[in-house]
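> Could you send the Dihydrofolate reductase family protein prediction when you get a chance?

Sure thing. Input:
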Amino acid sequence: MRKLVYYIAVTLDGRIAGPGDEFDFFPAGDAEQTAAYMGFMNSLYPETVPTAFRAMAGVEGAPNRRFDTVLMGRATHQLDPSVPSPYAHLRQYVVSSTLKPDLDPAVTVVPGDPVGLVRDLKKEETGKDIWLCGGGTLAGALLEEIDEIVLKSYPVVAGAGIPMVDGRFDPTVFSVAERTVFPNGVTATRLVRS
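Output:
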């Protein structure tokens, strides 16, 4: 069965973005450190690079290694409102009760029941997993369906902003499967549901 994998960048205090959806404050390190970090992550998950940046990241035309489907909330989808189809190389689902269903032919807007959607997607036999791109409210609604977390932890405290998981109190244990520490201070950890 396919897995739902929450692949996300986070601050030390558990924020995936600032209070105004900003994420440009995540420290990247110097050019060499950034290139090493991005090269490593993009080699593992090339499909997580937005379509508009794939050529610049050196992954244009690269096959999808882990995911063939991306799931995101409205705010994550609208980080750049001028791009209605940010991941054209993936099947795209946006969970939103306010977006119009005819947003873009390559994007499926789902007005409700993200749990039912994920359970249906997991039953498909595509050979690839489902990427939960964000945001925190959607992750909170889908916590019981998240099978793995790939957490890119940056050495910065935001102080306020969008939490990684915003939902009800529901302690859920994950085990560390692998961890890589980069010279720029970023730690990439893959966790699996215990």
